[in-house]
Amino acid sequence: MRYGIAVGLWMVALGACQVATLPQVVDGREERSASELSQLFDPGALTVMTRGLSGEGHLERVLEAPRAEEPARAAELLEALHPEDVRARARKLADEIQYARPHLIGLQRVMQVRRQSPGDALFGGTRPAEELHLDVLPVLMGELAARGLHYREVARVRNADVELPLLTSEAPAFDDVRLTDFDVILARADVEVKEARTGNYVAHRKVRRPGQEPVALPRGWASVAAKVEGRTYRFVSTHLEPAPDEHGLRVQVAQAGELIRALHGEPLPVVLVGDFNTPANLGLMGAPTYRELLLAGYVDVWTHRQGSTRPVGADLALEMPALAERLDLVLVRKPVTPGLRRVGPVLAYTVGGTPDVAGVVARLRM
User: Fold this and answer.
1) Domains in the chain and their CATH numbers?
2) How far is CA 264 from CA 245, 260, 296, 297, 365, in A?
3) Nearest to residue 287, comparing CAs of 244, 330, 348?
4) Residue-wise pLDDT tens digits, 205-239
5) Between vectors from CA 226 to CA 346 and to CA 191, what angle results, nearest 5°?
6) In the predicted model, what is the mean pLDDT of the chain?
7) Phi-psi region of 284 (alpha: psi -120 to 50; beta: other; left: phi over 0)
8) Which of 146, 141, 181, 183 is nearest to 162 (CA)?
9) pTM flag (> 0.90)
10) Alpha-carbon distance 49 to 330, whole Å?
11) What is the C-alpha separation between 173 and 167, in angstroms, rounded?
12) Pairing of strands 299-300, 46-52
């Protein structure tokens, strides 16, 4: 388990005082009537997707390496972003989008790679690499267009932007490689979008580098007000800090707190998606970040889903992957009104198939 002792301590500290205040959650196995299910396929239902586009890439492993090993590890990282692999991932994601036809898509780990040859980073140079080597989003957009699917980018936030020395031959020779990470929102052509907003969290991780200055790895969020079938929602996508240790967990919880506060006064129904890096399946108590989101009034639509994790008639491999943790979430929050909150019916299933590029599609009514 990725959290280990750190999560256990947080759960003990928070559990006793907060369990009574958790919002009501409907068991995902609750029987739904045929009329409720039919509502999902009538006008007015909302379909959203959250998905990682590139793999995690283990940037921290490169940054934490001894300085002499950094160029070789950067070369390994760049190999993981081989253009053919990127195209294969884009084709798979385009197939998933063609099947689901989501109104709105939150993409995390949208990577852009630039190079400089010869490089100067290894020798203390500061000139940033500008020659574009790879941009994964246009590859996806091209696959969508080839299928006759009309989507457009409506919001983008830049997160980590790191330049590294890159070993290019046994001579040896060195270039610089610059890796920039974005979160992006795509909207279907028939969705009216306005009020795009983006931001980076104050809380972020700094990676200590042997003999060098620490490198900041900021993360952020993007949102839009989107009108779907006559109703307007605040759609938000984010990617929170992983939490393999107590420090990462503290950063992640702080980021979630910033996001909760930023959306606190939002008058529109909120649909919050992303890679939250917080296990949502650790039992009743849950992980700290997941608990804080529930306590802030958000409902995990997965707990309201109808039936199987695979839609009837699906011709794609959309089965639930064998993941130990459910980290990619679709959360909703209705405006504060008297009476019980009602979310559902919901059809939800996983996509991606591997932990570093997993995602969720949800079709629901709020």
Assistant:
1) 4-364 (3.60.10.10)
2) 28, 6, 9, 10, 21
3) 244
4) 998 876 778 889 999 999 999 999 899 999 999 99
5) 90
6) 81
7) alpha
8) 181
9) no
10) 8
11) 6
12) unpaired
